Amino acid sequence: MRRSAEEARRTRERIVSTAVSHASGEGLSGLTIGALAETLGMSKAGVIGPFGSRAGLQAAVLAEAVDMFTNAVVAPTLAADPGLARLHAVIDAWCAYLADSPFPNGCFVTAASCELDGRPGELRTRLRDTVTRWHGFLREQIVTAQAAGDIGAELDAGDLVSLLSGIAMSANQEIQLLGDETAAARARRLMRAALGPSRPGRGQG
């Protein structure tokens, strides 16, 4: 029983990993069971079985892509001191992720946002909730930095979240579409500048 459960887990992980790669290139809506089955050397029933439906597989793919982003951009930065130091760590990790994306076609969430923003449904709702949580995380870091005196209190936290997100989306396009190797470094510089000058002795890093 234990061995069977472990095999099932590994099979599911293998399917999701392959599906993430496919969806990065073809989009979540372009994810086909037939193409996955051929790539994996499995039957269509074997591919869809662990998820119950194509929609279930799409949800698992989105969740995996979000986990990959979180592990690369959020988790490593939580060790930094709250305030500007952590914000700088987030920006650095975010831009490094854009420059060296684990996905064939750049940031998965950005691509999925462009694909799904006008398509109501469960998948769009899941993605909207993901982006909302990310914006909330950024806003929390900004407000914390303002309370510590690291960032000017006159700056609107919501405006900064939109500005940082816009810079990241622009950088993703410049990297993927234009092949601009300077885009990630420029995004990092612009994001840091948007937060205002560092206060002496505070938030350095």
Summarize the structure in short:
By secondary structure, this protein is mostly helical. The protein contains nine helices and no strands. The termini are far apart.
- What's the CATH H-level homologous superfamily? Tetracycline Repressor, domain 2
- Could you give the order of the helices and strands? HHHHHHHHH
Record field, number of beta strands:
0
Tell me the radius of gyration.
19 Å
The CATH architecture would be Orthogonal Bundle
Structural class by SSE content: mainly alpha
Q: How many helices?
A: 9
* Portion in helices: 55-70%
Strand content: under 5%
Multimeric state of these chains? single chain
Whole-number tally of structural domains: 1
Major β-sheet, in short?
A: none
Kindly identify the CATH topology. Answer: Tetracycline Repressor, domain 2
What would you call the shape?
elongated
Mean pLDDT: 92
Domain HTH tetR-type: 9-69
GO molecular function: DNA binding
Organism: Thermocatellispora tengchongensis
InterPro entries: Homeodomain-like_sf, HTH_TetR, Tet_transcr_reg_TetR-rel_C_sf, TetR_C
